[in-house]
Specification:
homodimer; about 210 residues; alpha/beta; six-stranded parallel β-sheet; two-stranded antiparallel ribbon; about 45% helix; DNA-binding
DNA sequence: AACTGTGAAGCTGTTCACAGCG
DNA sequence: CGCTGTGAACAGCTTCACAGTT
């Protein structure tokens, strides 16, 4: 089991590697990866150790091999599905984001309470249509999705989390700026934009960052 | 200077406190705050120590006092302004998000390259209109904004970062899934949704989390 | 010479544990 | 009693430093 921080960085590395590869490169050095991840070369090498990837002192790491190794470490071999609840601006934005995903992870279905949105086909969701939330459990079970994404307003977030939980998802990505409580065997990751903005605002002020 | 993690938690605490207050409460215990922040009571008390807040053994912390203290620690006394670049779905979602902000932080202006969006008035932005990016430097300087939010596609993110940088912002909240490089005295916070999703997907699989 | 792989050291943030208090 | 405030112990991650490799 890979530590959370490492998983995050591996995800970053991979995206960068794809980009490098597309640009025609075949190898990278640890310090290249360090640059984009905001870490050090030593840290990158540690991460490589964690997933058992190795490189050569002269050439660095071979991109194809590395991407493969990261995939073996992070991806479900047979693919993985997520459902998105909340088809507002944020939900739509995410569909666009994730649809460029060449990974083994796809959005299987979209749900929303708004009758006007139901039946609408959603970009990025394999031409699927937007369902009423009543269908959540059925769709999750049928599709075998194990990840839920919450992009509904705070007021509805807990309720949606409960639905997802009883539908059987194992992980939740929560965008509502509120703490949702679910069974402890479900992994919850919060993206709290308000918090991030307040952090930036704080550090943008006066705080001089040390330059070496 | 408060550590990054602490700033994040303080932001969370405050939001929860506002909610408690609205519900008619006057006091909280450290363990209440621990619950919503996913930490321990000891950690909450440490955080309180960091900002010099104190409570009483019998009543806990007084909400009004605490909110005030957090404000003194995090907020710019005279308010702070941010500009948002990229008025797509994500940008619009953020405007809605942040417009409920009762804090001292507001979105002063929105920019987008799309001529169809220019001149359009944007919800949540004080009735302001969407500007062409050419105006960025001028608007930033005039409004005194010191935070920039990047919600443009990856391909344009670095360019926007450069504009923001030379316009003089001191902090950037970057939603593009790519590492932007700017002068080291600018604080950059990345919100990498793809990474978060991949994390959730990873931990949703097989990984049994310890229950106490 | 420049990079990888890694034991060991170092840090930073977290938690323990307990004195003090209302 | 149950909670706060805090020195001290702890844990996990990060970085150092250097041997090994090509």
């Amino acid at each position: 089991m890979i530590p959370e921080r490492v998983v995050g960085r591996l995800s970053q590395y991979r995206r960068f590697l794809m980009r490098l590869k597309a640009a025609g490169n075949t190898h990278v050095y640890s310090h290249n990866l360090a640059e984009i991840s905001g870490g050090t070369a030593a840290q990158v090498r540690r991460d490589m150790m964690t997933i058992g990837a190795t490189g050569s002192p002269t050439k660095g790491y071979e991109i194809d091999v590395l991407v493969d190794r990261i995939g073996q470490s992070l991806d479900a071999p047979s693919g993985q599905k997520a459902v998105l609840v909340g088809a507002g601006n944020l939900g739509k934005a995410l569909l666009h984001f994730f649809s460029e995903g060449r990974t083994k992870l796809s959005i299987a279905a979209v749900f929303d309470n708004d009758p006007a949105k139901q039946g609408q086909s959603m970009y990025g969701c394999d031409g699927c249509i937007c369902h009423h939330i009543d269908k959540l459990e059925a769709v999750v079970k049928e599709s075998g999705a194990d990840v839920g994404i919450i992009t509904v307003p705070s007021s509805a977030a807990q309720e949606v989390a409960d639905c997802l939980s009883s539908a059987g998802v194992k992980g939740i990505l929560n965008f509502a700026p509120i703490t949702i409580t679910v069974d402890s065997n479900i992994y919850v990751e919060d993206i709290d934009m308000t918090m991030s903005l307040e952090k930036v605002a704080y550090f943008a002020r006066g705080q001089v960052v040390e330059s070496v």
